[in-house]
Amino acid sequence: MSKYLLHTVVTVSVGLALIAFPAWADEGQAPGAPHGDHGNVSVKADVPDDIKEILITIDAKQIELHKAVSEKRLSDVHQFAFAIRDLAKPLLDKVSTDKRAKVEGTVNNIAKLATDLDTSGDAGDQAKTEANMKKLDGTLKLLEAQVAPK
After folding, report:
1. What is the total count of domains within the chain?
2. 43: nearest Cα among 57, 29, 23
3. What is the pLDDT of residues 30-77, one digit of tens each?
Protein backbone atom coordinates (compact mmCIF):
# COMPACT_ATOMS: atom_id res chain seq x y z
CA MET A 1 0.00 0.00 0.00
CA SER A 2 1.48 3.35 -0.95
CA LYS A 3 2.27 5.88 1.74
CA TYR A 4 -0.17 8.34 0.15
CA LEU A 5 -3.03 5.84 0.12
CA LEU A 6 -2.31 4.74 3.68
CA HIS A 7 -2.10 8.36 4.85
CA THR A 8 -5.44 9.09 3.14
CA VAL A 9 -7.11 6.05 4.73
CA VAL A 10 -5.83 7.01 8.19
CA THR A 11 -6.85 10.65 7.78
CA VAL A 12 -10.35 9.75 6.57
CA SER A 13 -10.79 7.23 9.40
CA VAL A 14 -9.69 9.77 11.98
CA GLY A 15 -11.95 12.39 10.41
CA LEU A 16 -14.99 10.12 10.56
CA ALA A 17 -14.30 9.27 14.18
CA LEU A 18 -13.92 12.94 15.03
CA ILE A 19 -17.21 13.85 13.41
CA ALA A 20 -19.03 11.53 15.81
CA PHE A 21 -16.92 12.22 18.91
CA PRO A 22 -17.61 15.95 19.51
CA ALA A 23 -21.35 15.37 19.31
CA TRP A 24 -21.42 13.61 22.66
CA ALA A 25 -18.09 14.40 24.31
CA ASP A 26 -18.97 17.90 25.50
CA GLU A 27 -22.66 17.36 26.06
CA GLY A 28 -24.01 19.91 28.49
CA GLN A 29 -20.99 22.21 28.29
CA ALA A 30 -20.81 25.60 26.67
CA PRO A 31 -18.39 25.84 23.74
CA GLY A 32 -14.94 26.78 24.99
CA ALA A 33 -15.81 25.98 28.61
CA PRO A 34 -12.98 24.42 30.60
CA HIS A 35 -13.14 20.65 30.74
CA GLY A 36 -11.32 20.22 34.02
CA ASP A 37 -7.95 18.63 34.64
CA HIS A 38 -6.88 16.44 31.74
CA GLY A 39 -3.26 16.03 32.83
CA ASN A 40 -3.48 12.31 33.46
CA VAL A 41 -6.10 11.55 30.85
CA SER A 42 -5.22 8.89 28.33
CA VAL A 43 -6.92 9.29 24.98
CA LYS A 44 -7.69 5.87 23.56
CA ALA A 45 -5.92 5.55 20.24
CA ASP A 46 -5.06 2.37 18.46
CA VAL A 47 -1.27 2.25 18.43
CA PRO A 48 0.14 0.70 15.27
CA ASP A 49 2.80 -1.98 15.54
CA ASP A 50 5.69 -0.32 13.77
CA ILE A 51 7.47 3.02 13.95
CA LYS A 52 6.49 4.16 10.46
CA GLU A 53 2.80 3.56 11.10
CA ILE A 54 2.95 5.30 14.48
CA LEU A 55 4.50 8.35 12.81
CA ILE A 56 1.78 8.37 10.14
CA THR A 57 -0.90 8.21 12.85
CA ILE A 58 0.77 11.01 14.82
CA ASP A 59 0.83 13.07 11.61
CA ALA A 60 -2.92 12.54 11.17
CA LYS A 61 -3.58 13.71 14.74
CA GLN A 62 -1.30 16.69 14.18
CA ILE A 63 -3.33 17.68 11.10
CA GLU A 64 -6.52 17.50 13.15
CA LEU A 65 -4.90 19.58 15.90
CA HIS A 66 -3.96 22.26 13.38
CA LYS A 67 -7.49 22.24 12.00
CA ALA A 68 -9.04 22.61 15.46
CA VAL A 69 -6.74 25.51 16.34
CA SER A 70 -7.23 27.28 13.00
CA GLU A 71 -11.01 26.93 13.40
CA LYS A 72 -10.71 28.25 16.99
CA ARG A 73 -12.14 25.02 18.44
CA LEU A 74 -9.85 25.26 21.45
CA SER A 75 -12.04 22.99 23.56
CA ASP A 76 -11.09 20.15 21.18
CA VAL A 77 -7.33 20.68 21.48
CA HIS A 78 -6.84 18.32 24.43
CA GLN A 79 -8.11 15.25 22.57
CA PHE A 80 -5.54 15.65 19.79
CA ALA A 81 -2.67 16.74 22.04
CA PHE A 82 -3.14 13.79 24.39
CA ALA A 83 -3.60 11.35 21.49
CA ILE A 84 -0.25 12.50 20.10
CA ARG A 85 1.32 12.09 23.55
CA ASP A 86 -0.13 8.60 23.91
CA LEU A 87 1.02 7.57 20.43
CA ALA A 88 4.57 8.83 21.06
CA LYS A 89 5.10 6.89 24.31
CA PRO A 90 5.22 3.39 22.75
CA LEU A 91 8.07 4.52 20.49
CA LEU A 92 10.37 4.14 23.51
CA ASP A 93 9.96 0.36 23.30
CA LYS A 94 10.62 0.32 19.56
CA VAL A 95 13.98 2.12 19.38
CA SER A 96 17.44 0.74 20.01
CA THR A 97 18.97 1.25 23.43
CA ASP A 98 21.50 3.75 22.06
CA LYS A 99 18.63 6.02 20.90
CA ARG A 100 16.38 5.50 23.90
CA ALA A 101 17.65 8.34 26.13
CA LYS A 102 17.25 10.98 23.41
CA VAL A 103 13.84 9.66 22.37
CA GLU A 104 12.73 9.55 26.01
CA GLY A 105 13.62 13.23 26.44
CA THR A 106 11.66 14.12 23.32
CA VAL A 107 8.64 12.03 24.39
CA ASN A 108 8.70 13.77 27.78
CA ASN A 109 8.73 17.15 26.02
CA ILE A 110 5.74 16.05 23.94
CA ALA A 111 3.88 15.11 27.15
CA LYS A 112 4.62 18.54 28.65
CA LEU A 113 3.51 20.31 25.48
CA ALA A 114 0.28 18.26 25.41
CA THR A 115 -0.48 19.51 28.93
CA ASP A 116 0.44 23.07 27.92
CA LEU A 117 -1.86 22.83 24.88
CA ASP A 118 -4.67 21.55 27.07
CA THR A 119 -4.20 24.39 29.54
CA SER A 120 -4.09 27.13 26.91
CA GLY A 121 -6.97 25.57 24.98
CA ASP A 122 -9.18 25.30 28.06
CA ALA A 123 -8.32 28.93 28.90
CA GLY A 124 -9.48 29.96 25.42
CA ASP A 125 -6.08 31.56 24.76
CA GLN A 126 -5.74 31.34 20.97
CA ALA A 127 -2.29 32.97 20.79
CA LYS A 128 -0.80 30.76 23.51
CA THR A 129 -2.36 27.66 21.95
CA GLU A 130 -0.86 28.54 18.57
CA ALA A 131 2.55 29.09 20.21
CA ASN A 132 2.33 25.74 22.01
CA MET A 133 1.28 24.04 18.78
CA LYS A 134 4.35 25.44 16.98
CA LYS A 135 6.56 24.11 19.78
CA LEU A 136 4.89 20.72 19.43
CA ASP A 137 5.43 20.80 15.66
CA GLY A 138 9.17 21.29 16.17
CA THR A 139 9.35 18.58 18.80
CA LEU A 140 7.50 16.14 16.54
CA LYS A 141 9.97 16.85 13.72
CA LEU A 142 12.77 16.06 16.13
CA LEU A 143 11.03 12.84 17.21
CA GLU A 144 10.62 11.75 13.60
CA ALA A 145 14.31 12.41 12.92
CA GLN A 146 15.24 10.36 16.00
CA VAL A 147 13.09 7.31 15.27
CA ALA A 148 12.31 7.21 11.53
CA PRO A 149 13.58 4.08 9.83
CA LYS A 150 16.37 4.93 7.41
Report:
1. 1
2. 57
3. 444 444 545 445 555 578 889 999 999 999 999 999 999 999 999 999
| Domain span including residue 110 | 48-150
The span from the CA of 117 to the CA of 94, in Å, is 26
In-domain check, residue 10: no
pLDDT of 108 over the 60 cut: yes
Whether 6 is in a domain gets the answer no
The Cα 62–Cα 68 span in angstroms is 10
CB atoms within 10 A of CB 33: 12
3-state DSSP assignment of residue 83 = helix
The reply to whether 124 falls in a domain is yes
pTM of the model: 0.71
The answer, yes or no, to whether residue 86 has pLDDT greater than 50, is yes
Q: How far apart are CA 103 and CA 145, in angstroms?
A: 10
Here the contacts of 16-19 (C-beta below 8 Å, separation 24 or greater) are: 18/64
Q: Are 103 and 147 spatial neighbours (Cβ–Cβ below 8 Å)?
A: yes
The pLDDT value given to residue 147: 95
